[in-house]
Amino acid sequence: MKKWIFLLTILYGLTATQVSFSPEVHAVSQKTWEDVAVNETKKRYPLSQVLFSQKIWDKAKKDITVKQYRLTLREGMEDFAVYTTITFDSSSGEIKKIQVIPEA
To answer: Could you please report the per-residue DSSP string of 27-78?
Structure first.
């Protein structure tokens, strides 16, 4: 009986260590593009504080991917929002264009 418990413990331990989780990969890559949007917005509004950032949409084509983020900023006592659009090469990740447009 002790041998069976020992074998089951070893088998369970081996199968439990082989499980991998892949959703973390998407979270890391998503966060990096959001960080790029925040950093580029901070370049254009250096005195502002970023209160909130949210991905609005993204569109992937064969060569180019476009992502848009809405950032809520505070500068002094005023809160306002900007849209930051990042266009980059789908395969290499090289940034082609970044637009920061204040919300009307």
So the answer is: HHHHHHHHHHHHHHHHHHSTT-EEEEEEEEEEEE-SSEEEEEEEEEEEETTE
For domain 22-102, give the CATH number: 3.10.450.390
Instruction: Check if the beta carbon of residue 74 is closer than 8 Å to that of residue 48.
Output: yes
Per-residue pLDDT of the chain (104 residues; tens, 9 = 90+): 766 666 566 655 544 444 444 444 444 466 799 999 999 999 999 999 999 999 999 999 999 999 999 999 999 999 999 999 999 999 999 999 999 999 98
Provide the whole-model pTM: 0.70
Residues in contact with 67: Cβ distance below 8 Å, sequence separation at least 6, in sequence order: 33, 37, 55, 57, 58, 85, 86, 88
**In the chain, domain spans:** 22-102
